[in-house]
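Consider the following assembly input.
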Amino acid sequence: MPKLLILTSDKTEYQRFIESAQLPDLEVISDPAQADLVLGEPKSILYMLPLLSHLKWAQSIYAGVEPLVDPSQRRDYILTNARGVFGEWMSEYVFGYLLFLEKKMLDRMRAQQAREWKRDESGTLRGKTLGLLGVGSIGAHLAGTAKHFGMHVRGYTLASEATDEVDEYFHPTTGKSNGDISTLHQFASGLDYLVSVLPRTKETNQLVDEAFLEALPNHAVFINVGRGNSVDEAALVEALNEGRLGAAVLDVFAQEPVSPEHPFWSTPNLYMTYHTSAISYPDDITKLFVENYRLYRQGKPLKYIVDFERGY
Amino acid sequence: MPKLLILTSDKTEYQRFIESAQLPDLEVISDPAQADLVLGEPKSILYMLPLLSHLKWAQSIYAGVEPLVDPSQRRDYILTNARGVFGEWMSEYVFGYLLFLEKKMLDRMRAQQAREWKRDESGTLRGKTLGLLGVGSIGAHLAGTAKHFGMHVRGYTLASEATDEVDEYFHPTTGKSNGDISTLHQFASGLDYLVSVLPRTKETNQLVDEAFLEALPNHAVFINVGRGNSVDEAALVEALNEGRLGAAVLDVFAQEPVSPEHPFWSTPNLYMTYHTSAISYPDDITKLFVENYRLYRQGKPLKYIVDFERGY
């Protein structure tokens, strides 16, 4: 009989959702030594790993599982992450910020404070070109929303071309995401918006560097909802300070929380949010766990298995 | 041979688009006395009406044609307005502002100024209920975008139920838009967002009044991209001041431009834009004119004919 340990900050809510799913034979327990299944935040699972002597399967409630794929950690269990549930939140965040900028909302608020009837024209999403760095389930959702708004979509991926909503694919010829600079810059050239949804891996390190930023048009908006490691932060600050980039909206950073001394806080046209773009809701994650639990009981391969070597 | 007078501020651009369409027999002229066709802004057409002795058909470049449907004006010509081209801009505006509010963008900016890593959760569009006052071509586009974001959509219309994306329709039983208060308040009850796209007519006057605002939940957001006459502005200010409404985003007003003394400028949670939500692009409007011109030459009924009595 499978024994599940829940390691999340809203454990009560998860327990309620899981119990109401009435999964056959499942017992929710609190002793890590007895648990063969774990559902939780990657960091909480990491801290508990030494005690989880019977662990067979761990389901992460987040997409990013960096703490658990570190080479120093054990890999003698199946790790699955959360996919397919964050695309909607990412779409709301990304298109919310693009519209915030195109509709000149800050200008309109300043005009209101000055009691000024200011009729300058808004920009539009329609007709613009969006570039996606990484096209997994989140990128696919963003591409769908971009098409709804009449945009042209480019996708930069290692090899996959699974999403029909992407109009043009770009791949590195070497099979490494940073392996072919010219393809990457071809992808960047002419983009109105660049959105990175890349996971943290060795290959994504500093992908958005000075030369990449230089390849973007000066009016381009860069949004990062992937991981902070993919950005050369100093080069980004410089590009914004010198007006070589329209704006940047960052939800993720090389170091989180960002230290109070970091130049980001006061860089012009840089909008920070605080790793809040995706929301992990217990009912969404429970659905995913329930689906995987049924496969697990049937001895079938689970969904969203993490490749420890690849890192996602 | 039809003779067209262009009455718009960007006349050169319109002329270029129309000439490149190579319409059979059409001549663009500048003498109003000779013109049988006019393409232009409603106010410019109004000023020219006394000189347009041969006018047969006028195509407005806007959706709202209030100056021309005034009972004191002549009605001996066919008036068509612009429809089907503004839905996209209205969607960008409306969902941009809803996301601006749900994603707490102002709070995030204030946190950034204070160098504070502030991780409070965002709200979502998904699962929310949007109410549309008026479901014409603009309302239909808004409904489609709402469904893309996983929302529930209510529509309040006189009688039509033409848009599939609307989940629930509400109609006044008397056949007048303000004729049945209880249906209107049933429509308002439980809405997260209310969006008015109503045209200015006698029937829409003060539809959103104190009682209507009272019927909305306290957290509701009201967006007006229709016409200002539909709102009791004093009641709206009071509701916002007293926290009985979440926020209001207004692009249209009873009097435009809004006078510097108006309480709107400094009402809390009220966001003003300046009749900038819809953008009338010459290439969009020219397509519409070209389509209608072909029908006109074939002696067929034109599209988007305005009913002078109804006012839209």
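The two ends of chain A are 29 Å apart (CA to CA). Ask yourself how this observation constrains the way the partners meet.
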